[in-house]
Automatic annotation (TrEMBL):
Organism: Mycena rosella (Pink bonnet)
Domain Alpha/beta hydrolase fold-3: 90-295
One Gene Ontology MF term: hydrolase activity
Protein's recorded name: Alpha/Beta hydrolase protein
Signal peptide: none
Alphabetized SUPFAM superfamilies for the sequence: alpha/beta-Hydrolases
InterPro entries: AB_hydrolase_3, AB_hydrolase_fold, GDXG_lipolytic_enzyme
Keyword Hydrolase on entry: yes
Hydrolase keyword on record: yes
Taxonomic placement: Eukaryota, Fungi, Dikarya, Basidiomycota, Agaricomycotina
Keywords in alphabetical order: Hydrolase
Length: 325
């Protein structure tokens, strides 16, 4: 959208790195892409969080094998603060464009948040595309959420965090009788993909320009984003592929949304937030001008990366408090 074009102007701290980042070739060989993703993202996050890593005595780690379909089990890691009280529960869904990543990706970060905010965290190792196409990853995460919901112990706050998958889960849970009496209380959407590029409604085509016009978007180019959707599979117009297309967003739980100015997903995320708000959903949105998708992994000391972490925690606290006006 033209009114958002200023958001693509490089942040002063990031500007010296734009040419270098743009020169990094995109990799479309799956295993090589996964290897680079894991080496870069996981290594950077561990480096960032090691200095403030909480002592082992402050929390417990319990790994579960959760059955999700036809005898198939996936790893689900539960981080629990040490203590006897009932803690809020956040279900966390890692990033990686459906094709990469693992529970190790955010493990250090989540352990720090578990202790800092005194919340229990469920980190889901869902199966990846394209070997496991849509809706496998979605069903895995939803099954893990419902598995935890069957526990007798009641969690008094239950946000779900991630991106595209979290947005869809919020819609599923809204309409699922299973969650009556054990409702979700929030959704955290970080640089979410909420609309397949081949399913843009005519009425929004003038607004959603960043896929083709945001040429200064390193790391996640428009071409790369489209490749990822092809790996995911499913119909572009399926609302569980493109949650922006749900006929109604009314009744969804409050949403915390984080958007990057140089991200080709930028305009759809901004539009999605507007549609949620128009449907009466409480939202708390933060925008980071002049930085690309995933910038906080590669440049954790930048002022905007520090702000990202502060906004993330503030948003989570807001959800845990019941999203007050």
């Amino acid at each position: 959208m033209a009114e958002y074009s200023h958001l693509s102007e490089p942040d002063p701290e990031f500007a010296p790195y734009v040419a270098e980042m743009m020169a990094i070739p995109q990799i479309y060989e799956l295993e090589a892409r996964r290897k680079r993703f894991d080496e870069f993202v996981t290594a950077m996050l561990k480096k960032s969080y090691t200095p403030g890593f909480p002592p082992d005595s402050d929390y417990r780690v319990v790994d579960h094998q959760v059955e999700v379909a036809n005898g198939v089990k996936i790893l689900v890691r539960n981080l629990i603060p040490v203590g006897d009280k009932t803690y809020p529960l956040m279900v966390w869904i890692h990033g990686g464009g459906w094709t990469s990543g693992s529970i190790e990706m955010d493990d250090y970060q989540l352990r720090a948040i578990c202790v800092e905010l005194q919340i229990s965290i469920l980190n889901v190792e869902y199966r990846l595309a394209p070997e496991h196409p849509h809706p496998t990853s979605l069903n895995d995460c939803y099954s893990a959420l419902k598995w935890r919901g069957l526990e007798k112990r009641v969690y008094h706050r239950r946000p779900v965090g991630g991106g595209h998958l979290s947005a869809v889960i919020a819609h599923r849970a809204r309409d699922d009788p299973f969650f009556q009496g054990r409702e979700l209380t929030g959704q955290i959407l970080q640089v979410p993909a909420v609309l397949h590029p081949n399913a843009v409604p005519e009425k929004y085509k003038r607004e959603l320009l960043s896929y083709e016009q945001n040429k200064d978007a390193p790391q996640l180019s428009a071409e790369s984003a489209k490749w990822l959707f092809r790996q995911l599979g499913g119909s572009p117009t399926d609302a569980e592929v493109s949650p922006l297309l749900y006929p109604s967003h009314k009744g969804l739980v409050p949403a915390v949304i984080q958007v990057c100015g140089m991200d080709p997903l930028r305009d759809e995320a901004l539009l999605y937030e507007r549609l949620l708000k128009d449907a009466g959903v409480k939202t708390k949105i933060s925008v980071y001008p002049g930085v690309p998708h995933g910038f906080n992994y590669g440049f954790p000391t930048f002022k905007l990366a520090v702000k990202w972490e502060e906004d993330y925690r503030a948003g989570l606290r807001w959800l845990l408090e019941g999203a007050p006006q």
